[in-house]
Amino acid sequence: MSAPTQKNSPAFFAVIVLLVIMSVGPVILMFVNSFKLDVDIISGTSGLIFMPTIQNYETALCDVLWYEPEPLDFCALKFGGAFKNSLIIALISTALTLVIGSMAAYALVRFRFMGRDTVSATTLMVRMVPPAVLLVPVFGLWNNEFCLDRDGLIGGAIRDMFGGRGDVCLAGTHTGIIVIYVAMNLPFVIWILQSFIVQVPRSLEEAARVDGAGPFQVFFKVVLPLIKPGLAAAAIFTFRIAWNEYLLASALSDRNTKTVPILIVNNMSEFNVEWGVIMATGMLLAIPPIIFTLFASRQIITGMTAGAVKG
Amino acid sequence: MLTSRLNRLSPYMFMAPAAVIMAIALIYPLGYMIWGSFRDWDPSQTIGEAEFVGLKNYITLWGDPNFHESLGVTLRFAFICVIVEMIIGVGLALLLDRDIRGMSLLRTMFILPMMIAPVVVGLMWRYMYHPTVGTFNRTLEWLGLPDVDWLGQHALMSVIIADIWQWTPFIFILSLAALQSLPRSALEAARIDGATAWQQILYIKLPLMMPVLIVTALLRLIDAFKVLEVILVLTEGGPGLSTEILALRISRTATEFRELGVAAAMSNYLLILLMLLTVAMIGFTKWQEARAAKLRMANEEDS
């Protein structure tokens, strides 16, 4: 900026304060409301004077609480189970995506091989495929084609163990959702990690190879530790998508594998919205991403700029 | 001997898991969808049982006024969002590109909206837009102004505002990064020549940032076509079809109307649209790189 505007005027600070209020305000509003009773939210005489209560959280988490919440006669919201599903799916798919994606990125950066250009172009193109486009085929495939025959050896064994009728399909299992999340996130992870792997000095890898390390040892012991910042950024973005995704999970999950976003949307569309409880569930869903943002904003920004500017 | 063969195979071994997963869960489903879009396909049938109807699904959609409406809403939503976000985001980056204490804290707060689940964003805004208990109408009442029917009459605008809230920071962060990597010498020279702040922005900063800005806008545009959850939670596509973007219509056609073939054909239309945008983006970066290389060559010849 030029010299005259360098001194920061009060108006400038006012703009900044306004911006901060605008970006964080809605989140704080939700946080505050999640501690209010519905009566307080609806009457809403004033925003700040109310009796804080954890009743909304008790209602939401009633299936995992060790005690019986007072005013609740029936535990309708199975939020705890959904939270567990979300965690399992997001963590496993993030870990898998990172391992598989970093290996592929390494191959694309460091080796010349047949089909390399095709792979790299395909990766770039499938990056833009929206989840909504995958909805129809994935629903069809996961329910009808990716199945094990119930009379077959493995399928029969699974049926005997878990019960149920019909063939054993990917739909309705954690694995089914994890597979599609890994596939969906791979192009992005490969893309982002390429720009980090390029920066690893070749001499290090060659030194390790001279010392007798095989290609996999070189990769896991030399390259991976050097691209930790890139891995962190990629992990956050992958986790965020897997944790927040609604559409595909809602098509693929059954009663026992519902994730948190599905639960929230289902409760939202009911006629009488219980704002307090909904806000509490929303808050619980938002907490992991908020924690990431607070502690790893530098990695997030690095990842964002690496992913886009290289675009 | 064995090691050399192992070395020749190693790229494929590194590539194999990713290739297998993407082939099974991305490429094959896409092909399956294209195959299914030529069929009269009901969710209870397998694809083999469905009747082959040729291009019927595509032609039906082409003449379907609801599909046109939905396509129009999608395009309007995407373009208005991106244009407004670009203006605000770049403007803020130009305004805040200076040494401020606590800038990193500021940036952390700005990226918060992007990280939160779209479902939760929809939830927060649905509360704030609520006709009687919502924050906006309460504030309006308190100011003595008439209520606004946010999610009724002005549904599309309200949805766009929510998206702007969530995604402007993305453009802000990227343009700030671009701004801070500009060559200092050009700015220095302009300042010495006595260029005003406005002239610096118009003639030096914006032109130099242009490549990054165009890529950012295209990336954001592609993402804007993917938005679904926020709108689903806020309006469920209503009232009428006023906010029913294509992604939402696809999911409704598949689950409510149970016409998988039509939904697949619609997905293909959306895919073609996005493909064009992606090709434009890749083409632009390639052209940009070629031009930069040519400039560098010219410079080397001069010196």
How many domains, in number, for the residues of chain B? Answer: 1
CATH topology of chain A: MetI-like fold
Q: Within the CATH hierarchy, at the fold level, what is the topology of chain B?
A: MetI-like fold
Helical proportion of chain B? over 70%
The count of domains of chain A is 1
CATH architecture descriptor name of chain B = Orthogonal Bundle
Radius of gyration of chain B: 25 Å
- What string gives the helices and strands of chain B in order? HEEHHHHHHHHHHH
The tally of beta strands of chain B, per DSSP, is: 2
Shape label of chain A: globular
Enumerate the strands of the largest sheet of chain A in spatial order, edge to edge or round the barrel.
Answer: 1-2
- Helix segment tally of chain A: 14
Strand content of chain B: under 5%
What would you give as the CATH superfamily of chain A? Answer: MetI-like
Amino-to-carboxy terminus distance of chain B: 50 Å
> Helix content range of the residues of chain A, please?
55-70%
Counting DSSP H or I runs of 4 or more residues, the number of helices of chain B is 12
Shape of chain B: globular
Detail the poorly predicted runs of chain B: none
Proper CATH architecture of chain A: Orthogonal Bundle
Overview of this structure, please?
The complex is a heterodimer of chains A (311) and B (303). Chain A has a two-stranded antiparallel sheet with strand order 1-2. In chain A, α4 (79-110) runs parallel beside α8 and α4 crosses α11. Chain A is globular. With 311 residues, chain A is mainly α. Chain A has one domain: MetI-like fold (Orthogonal Bundle), CATH 1.10.3720.10. Chain A contains 14 helices and two strands, in the order ααααααβαβααααααα. Chain B has 303 residues and is an all-alpha fold. Chain B has one domain (25-302): MetI-like fold (Orthogonal Bundle). In chain B, α2 crosses α12. Chain B starts with a helix and ends with a helix.
